[in-house]
Each structure stands twice: as structure tokens, then as C-alpha cells.
Amino acid sequence: MLSTRSDQMVLFVFASPTGYQPGAWKHPGSRVEDLYSLDLQADIAKRAEAAKIHAVFLADWLSFGDTGKNPDLTGYEPFTTMGALAAVTEKIGIIGTASTTFMEPFHLARYFSQLDFLSKGRVGWNIVTSSTGQENFNIDLPFRDERYQRALEYMDVVTGLWDCWEDDAVRADRSTGIWADRAKIHPLNHEGKHYKVEGPLLVPRSPQAWPVLAQAGSSPAGMDFAATYAEAVFTVKATLDKAQEFYGGVKDLLEQKGRSAKDLRILPGLMPIVGDNERDAQQIHNDLSDLIDFETGVKELTVLLHKADLSDLEAHDLVPLERLPTPEEVHLQGGSSRYPYFYEQAAIERKTMRELIREATKAAGHSVVAGSAEQIADHMEKWFHSDAADGFAILPPTVPVGLNRFLDEVVPILQSRGSFRKDYEEGTLRSNIGLERPASPWQD
Fold first, then answer.
1. How far apart (Å, rounded) are the C-alpha atoms in residues 232 and 274?
2. What count of other Cβ atoms lies within 10 Å of the Cβ of residue 86?
3. What is the spatial distance between Cα 153 and Cα 350, in angstroms, rounded to a whole number?
4. pLDDT tens string for the chain (444 positions)?
5. Phi and psi for 223 in degrees, rounded to 5?
6. What is the 3-state secondary structure (H, E, C) of 143-157?
7. What CATH architecture does domain 10-290+365-432 belong to?
8. Per-residue DSSP letters for 183-227?
9. How many whole angstroms separate alpha carbon 436 and alpha carbon 215?
10. Strands, DSSP E only, in 311-399?
11. For residues 93-121, b (16+ Cβ closer than 10 Å) or e, as one string?
12. φ and ψ at 434, to 5 degrees?
């Protein structure tokens, strides 16, 4: 049955195996020794499932960091991990990242259809166009706007492949010896600027028809793409006013595309640092920041500031303004959608290098709330009821300690207040977050 409870927030958890902060693996409670084992990721998924979280989210990296100081940045491979997690969980959604730039659409459509069957309708796809990784795929990476244009055709191909089979094509009729009605399986015959794909897909239409489509772009091109295809959007908005502006803008774009506002869930990233009280939480936050060495911080900040030269700067220095291009210039060059935020911190707020590194590494620009469980629940409800969020993508600062404190202390408060559900509904990931199953183009 389709959920219609818009008064309750949607919560996803980033399955960061050692925690989302770059230095979190050095925390004495981390399980860094278990990295890349199924046990570690399965424990995260099962803990989140016990708290009735809607989905766990698997990020991905396609370039190797040059410092070697953060083992998590090489990442779990999403497709194999999704399949494994589907076998050890029952209700929670599993969302994996895959790039439209580096994978053929036929492969991707087939992988996700098979995963949807294996999980009984619990998978989602985080759609990225990728800003790094070309060194491993024998191609030159196009500028961002061109990547999004290519991605739009890519989406036409994969959604078309998912729709090649009619919902009742499989008959499994032993008496006649007909497993599937060939007349209800249609070729795609796509021939466009970037792709030529005949089809049909080798897999029947899956329980959800399409995986839940998630996306994280906040640039104008990313917002337009989200309004066209996305059903869940992760966004980097650290302040309420910026989140409200983004929320209203994307919802307006959605209507311009002929879609309804209820067709999309906007989920700002949130790192909750739970303490016994606000002072305790701030101390936890400071202790985590101190785990990040200056060299690693400079390298991460360099990427976020569009490869600005920071090599000669010390912790107390300000970034010279002449080294920073304007956000408009970065946009024209296809740079990161996170750049305007960090440009504002460096050029307008005039934060020192150490302050900028803390901002860059604490949650990559996402909102960080350090306080008691009640204070964090209050923050989440304020955003939820202020047209800034339909829920949140939770970035656990440490795993398992920080993750468990959120699940054990904050989630029950939200449940007691009626802001978050107490159990799963029967059905797919789509039905649990209130999304319709895509209609078959072949049905009457």
C-alpha cells in the first residue's frame, strides 16, 4: 500500500564504514580493521534497519586519493555490496552509486533490475555524472553541463530498457510450454547522439519497475536534471535559508516539468554529533576535528576550492582572494556545485586555513549539529516543518559510536513526537517513501 504520510520525514543513512569525517577511522571505537568485510557493512545496515531507517546509501570513488591517509576513500564497490546486503536484510532500502559517464547503460539497467529482484524491490540508484576518474576509463571527462546533457539521453536509454517488458509478459505456463509472451517484450531501438541500444533488456520488469532514482547535484544543470528524473535528492545546504531556497527552487522546477511536488524527496545532508549535552557534543566534535592532520585537510580543501594553490599557507593564514575564481567562473568551467559555499567561507567570511579545513573535513559542507539528542531532534523538525527538507541523509561522524548514538537516542525522540515512523510498511522501497511505481508505457 502506498504511503501518504507526508507529516513524517524520510531518513537515509550513509553507510560510511568508519564514519563520515576523514579522520574517523583513527577513532578508538572504529572498526577499521574490518574494512571491506561484509560483517562491517551488514552490521551498519542491520542497525539502521532495526531503527526503521528507510535506506542505507553507498557512495563510490573512482579516483585514488594521493595521501593514502584515509582508507575509507577507496570505498566499497556498490553493486557487489548491494547484492550482499540484500541477502542479510529484509526491509531496509539499499541505494548504490553508479556513474552515467563510465558505465554502459545496458549493463547498468541489467544490474539494477537483477538487484531489485534479489532484494524484493528495495534498491535505489544514486545517479552521478562524475567529476573525477577519467584516468581509469580511457576517456576525457566532459564539462559538467555536457555530462548532464549526456546523462539525460542515458536516462532515456535505461528507463526505456526497464520498460521493454510489459508487467504481465512472464506467463510461466507449464501446460503450453510458454514462459514469457514474446509479443509483450519490446525492443528499445534507441539511436541518439551518444548511444545506440537495440534492447530489449534480458530481465523482466522488476518489482519496482525502476529503482528509486536518487541524485546529488545542486548546480543549475543538476537541479534541472533532478526535476526531470530524480525521486530523492541529496543536497549540501548548511543553513536553513539556503536549504529553503533550494527546496523551493527544485519543487518549482518539478512543476514546470509536469511533475508533482510529491514525486520528489529532498534530503539535505546532516552530520549529527550526539552528546550528553551541548558542551559534551562540542567536545566530541573538537576531538574528531583534531584527528584530521593539516596536510590531508589542505589536500581536501584544495579540491573544494577548485584546485587553488594553498601549498604555501599555514594554519592561521587567510586564502589570498586573487587565487580564488568567482563561483560564476567555476560554473562555466564545470566545477563542483559545492564551490560557492566554500568560496563564501574563504572570500566573504574570511576564515583561516584551519577554520576552512575544519569546515571542509567535518562534513564536506553539509550541516553539522552538535548537541543533545533533543537538540538534534529539534533541529531536524525545524527544517522539516519549514519547507527546507522532506527528511535527511544522515552522515554518521563515527561508526559504530556516532551512528549508534543517533539511532538509539535521536530516532526514538522523533518517533515519540510522530515525526518519524515506528515500523516499515509492507512493500517496496518506493512504497515506504511514498513514491508511485512507474506505470508501464504498454498498459491500457
1. 26
2. 20
3. 42
4. 343 336 899 999 999 999 988 788 999 999 999 999 999 999 999 999 999 999 999 999 887 765 566 776 668 999 999 999 999 999 999 999 999 999 999 999 999 999 999 999 999 999 998 877 888 888 888 777 788 889 999 999 999 999 999 999 999 999 999 999 999 999 999 999 999 999 999 999 999 999 999 998 777 888 888 899 999 999 888 889 989 999 999 999 999 999 999 999 999 999 999 999 999 999 998 888 778 778 878 888 888 888 899 999 998 999 999 999 898 888 777 667 778 888 999 999 999 998 888 777 665 557 889 999 999 999 999 999 999 999 999 999 999 999 999 999 999 999 999 999 999 999 999 999 999 999 999 987
5. -65, -40
6. CHHHHHHHHHHHHHH
7. Alpha-Beta Barrel (3.20)
8. GGB----EE-SS-EE----SS--BTTBS-EEEE---SHHHHHHHH
9. 18
10. 367-371, 391-394
11. bbbbbbbbbbbebbebbbbbbbbbbbbbb
12. 80, 30
pTM of the model: 0.87
Beta pairing partners, 197: 190
Cell 527552487 -> residue? 249
Residue type, 437: R
- Tracing cell 559542507 back to the chain, one arrives at 365
Contacts of residues 308-312 at CB distance under 8 Å and 24 or more positions apart, as own/partner, are 310/353
> From CA 420, how far away is CA 359, in angstroms rounded?
29
| Cα of 254 vs its chain's centroid, Å | 19
